[in-house]
Amino acid sequence: MQDRRANARDKVLFGGRAEIDARSSMNCVVRNLSENGACVEVEGHARVPEEINLTIPRKGRSYLARVIWRQANRLGLAFRVMVTDPGASDLDARLRASEKKKRELQRRIKELIGED
User: Fold this and answer.
1) How far apart, in whole angstroms, are the C-alpha atoms of residue 12 and residue 38?
2) 30-80 pLDDT, tens per residue?
3) In 3D, which of 14, 19, 32, 17 has the Cα closest to residue 77?
4) Which end of the chain is more exposed for a tag (fewer CB within 10 A), N or C?
5) pLDDT tens by residue, 72-112
6) Which residues, in sequence order, are bridge partners of residue 65?
7) Beta strands in 8-100 (DSSP E)
8) What distance in Å separates the CA atoms of residue 55 and residue 4, rounded to the nearest whole number?
9) Which residues, 6 or more positions from 77, have their beta carbon under 8 angstroms from its beta carbon?
């Protein structure tokens, strides 16, 4: 089978969520991933429409994707739009604040024990 992808895909093993419509979704496993698409594995022979919203929590991203190919319980997806940006999340902000507080406390400890 000839590989016609524009970008090479990285082999991964991420949990994902395929949203079928506003009321239904299913768990899936992301097997490979690139900036333009992914290969996902769904449970059994689940009915998956031509377009889905794929969420990959570990990457903090969600994509509107089109099914390009189907083979048993695997789907080849082409990303159309990134729905959520991997930008700063609440967790990122809290981590930065925590690291800043840690540095302040370390400085204060050095002052108290006279290591200035």
Assistant:
1) 10
2) 999 998 999 999 988 778 899 999 999 988 899 999 999 999 999 999 999
3) 32
4) N
5) 999 999 999 988 755 555 676 777 888 889 999 999 999 99
6) 52, 79
7) 10-19, 25-33, 37-42, 51-56, 61-71, 74-84
8) 24
9) 37, 38, 39, 40, 52, 54, 63, 65, 66, 67, 68
